[in-house]
Write the structure tokens for this entry.
Amino acid sequence: MSQIKIKELKVENFKKEIEDRKNRRLIAISGVDQGNNFAVYYHFDDREEVENLKFTLSKDNPKIPTIVFDFPSSELYERETHDFFGIEFEGNPRLKEKLFLPEDFKGKPPLLKRENEDA
Amino acid sequence: MHDFSLPIGPINPSIKEPTCIKLDLEGNTIMKAYLQLGYVHKGVEHLLEGKRIEQALYIAQRICGICSFCHSNGFNQTIEKMLDYEPPKRVKYIRTLVTELERIQSHILWMGFMFHEFGFDTMFQYLLRDREHILEVFERVTGGRVHHAINKPKTVRYDIDEKDIKFILEKLKIIEKQFNKYLDIIKTDKVTKKRLINVGIIKKQQAKRYCLVGPNARASNLNNDIRKKHPYDAYPYLDFDCIMDRQGDAYARLIVRFMEVLESIKIIRQLLKGLPEGEIPKPSLVFIKEGMATSQVEAPRGENFYFTIVKDNKLERVKIRTPTFAVINILPILLENMVIGDVPVILHSIDPCFSCMERVIVVKDKKREVMDEHAFLHKYCDHHH
């Protein structure tokens, strides 16, 4: 039904996949809480449609390398995703500075699903 | 090395929306600039989660007060893609009409404030007076001057008739006449040129590296116009140019936006001339079991990106990447080695819209550390009550 083009990829191949797309335009990075794990989508501009790369990360230790040095605009996208999901982008120099949340914010990242907690 | 640090904002008369720029200064020269964001959080992405599609549309179109329609259009497109539905041509034309009117309105507002930044207040007043004509058109066509709640999944709320078309054309004529007059002023006025030329230069290579979008990219001769690259709505049927400039400075960004207003007028005339006959479908409820879609629309400030996941007719996740979020990261680099006096001009020249960009914050959290309204009143206003 959905016409979206998603490439599910392994984190091990992350560096190579990004290297291949170095000359393309990065549109956004979205984090999604899938319940048991996280998905991180990298949206790249393509000739026809948006190309979406999907990387699945475990909830215990969500880590993915940064792409800040290839795409400077990703600094903010990574910091936003880190703020709201707690995903670590290894190597991003300003990752620990809060982007949209208050400086003294403590507690769980706000965009995690919290059905069990509310019940 | 720097002599001292100067914070500008979050509340400062030269910045129209709250943001904070911290500057490391040596004398009058900026050595390094840091951006601090997060002063206008509204929690929209969190708010959208778990909402039904009809409810979500109301929230989406209230994200921004300047490009309200582009948000609802972007969201709507993801829904229509999931439904595999293509709206009738007349609906597409009306959507494009509102998009272009919004572009004119937004660019005029931006230009007004741009002139205001360096003290050309006469021009500011003239431009805002002209913007009123577009707002009147909005009021007539969509019913709302600021939030044009005209979009619905699969359709639009209102049709336009012959009288509306005549009204729009009359208003466009007034604006076009005025703008041709202003073009002389912009091209000859010494102060305008002195303040804007060679200020905040973005080179094409830099624009590409920073993945810039919209008029900011086009002013650096990089075409990322979604209307041409991924034509949507009625854009495939239209004949128009993307306005480009090579200089990449604040003046180029002014010229690009100025000419885009004239180009949008041209587009609207084509739309109204070729408006297809036919009925507009009645609004109906939509049901989506499961789906995922992305959409790109060209808002006045550039590409607006939506990524929507729906499960059981409720929104699972909506990711919104507004044009400002893609552009703002270049600002600290533009400010380096400039003087303080140029800060408002450079900041304003990239046309930031912070209300659009900053949307997500915790709305409800039992263990929160953030000060809420009650705590604030208790701490600061208690003795008054």
About this structure: Helices of chain A lie at 14-20, 74-85, 115-118. Residues 29 and 116 of chain A are 27 Å apart (CA to CA). The mean pLDDT of chain A is 88. The first strand of chain A starts at residue 6 and ends at 9.
